[in-house]
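Q: I have 620 residues here and want to know how they pack in 3D. Can you give me a structure?
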Amino acid sequence: MAIKGNSGEYRARSPLAMVVAVLLCCFFYVLGAWQRSGYGKGDRIAVAVTRQTACADASAAGLNFETHHAGANLSTSGLGEPPPTFAPCAAALADHTPCHDQDRAMKFPRKNMVYRERHCPSDGERLRCLVPAPPGYVTPFPWPKSRDYVPYANAPYKSLTVEKAVQNWVQYEGAVFRFPGGGTQFPHGADKYIDQLANVVPFADGTVRTVLDTGCGPGRVSGDSRGVIAMSFAPRDSHEAQVQFALERGVPAFIGVLGSVKLPSPSSSFDMAHCSRCLIPWSGNGGMYMMEVDRVLRPGGYWVLSGPPINWKANYRKWERTKEDLSGEQKRIEEYAEMLCWEKLTEMNEVGVWRKRTDTAACPARPAAVRTCDPANPDDVWYKNMETCITPSTAAAGGQLQPFPARLKAVPPRISSGAIPGFTVESYEEENRQWEKHVKAYRKVNYKLDTERYRNILDMNAGVGGFAAALFSPKSWVMNVVPTAAELSTLGVIYERGLIGIYHDWCEAFSTYPRTYDLIHANGVFSLYRDRCKMEDIMLEMDRILRPEGTVILRDDIDVLLQVQKVATGMRWKTMMANHEESPHIPEKVLYAVKRYWTAVRDNSSEENGSSSEGKGSDV
């Protein structure tokens, strides 16, 4: 109403505004021409984006809030002080994973793989430097070529090519690694293996969309193109590049292990869980690991076990294990599956397939010694120990899902049943309409959003998955993070849409390698963590997991973003502030940023490389 009432005043100033817009266009054109000579492809995109925005919306490019907003409530330094600067870390830390440090891991017990779980540094041990890319780092190949080729410079580890030489899994060919698609359980390629599974598991009709690939680091199932999205995990161990290879190939993955704590996933989330020689002791610990898979598996979901002990009679000699050992292991697995109300569908060669029943009335009587987990909050899993108990499926989480892609836009059962406090069907649909508007505005600023430029995308505060749904494309995937600090646990809704994600506390490092993501989106993250941890630490973690020339899109209050922009300057990011798409008078703004290209150099130091990325693109 205030804008409408002052319309005459704004009309009077319109000629001046037009002059300002023209001057800004000229300024950014000259600035862009200058910057083109010094930086890589991603930076030239940022310059073009800045110039385009300046011409289309002068107010977005020339924001000035000095007389209207203050940052007195923020814990970082005031606006009048110079921005902090961050030195590069040592070149040896190019693959630094703070919460999965090998030296720290060795101080923890090996029982139940505790030493391979998350063990984060204390605040005093935390590194506050910029993790460099390795010398010679290049932009990964675009999808789907990245599925088959990874530049050697990006993950320079040849050990797997030796250890897995007979498996036809990875081959080193000059400047690249090539992934023929083989593996221990599928030497003829993953496509043939998936064809075999498709005889039992309904991939074709969209019933099976989300897959948990347990312990399968390089992401072979996700590399298939049948509409499934599989999230793989593996520990950081002697095969240190497994997860890194998966991510370089453009496949969803994180560093993790089935050990002593629960998976960072909600209950009843995955349509299928898969294990191909994943070395998880399914028959041990009283069936605890199968119970954890049961917790995250939707009613009607599938469990696929490929490798020992399936079909042990034909393979015990090859596996160099006794008949008694293998037969006992399979017997215990079969007993636990029956106790969990899983129906065995088939056993094909070395592959067993079970299905979690939807009708619990058809389940056999459960042994008296097996207890039911506390049903109060089955999604409270962050750093919570696994238990030998069975998680009951709730009516909301077990609701009927439409086949994908229809489920992406359908109302999820958790919403329609009222399981998420404060959300109704109407408010959920309005939330999605807002994100359609937001992403439309993003596309006007960054014209590369719908191209192969961005494959691996991270949403740091995903809500109900509105950003990922609005951006959805087979060219990309989004890791939707629901912060443990969030008021509502909405990750189950995200999975019901056919998307994937994880719980995480952004006061700690993410369970991934450096240079994982091409684009990071963060809505209100810094406001959410205002009094919980340091802004600089969150931004340093963002820089660690963002690829050189990667893009960041931040939505938050202007007071917060002004502080973020100052810190970003000291991190070699180039930034541009833009108004909310609906009105410049809305305090929420958008900050766009591009991480400059720079790498470590071979004398164990780090320096910025100012040459054009035209010479840094991947090629074969």
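Q: Anything worth noting?
A: The mean pLDDT is 84. The CA atoms of residues 91 and 603 lie 8 Å apart.
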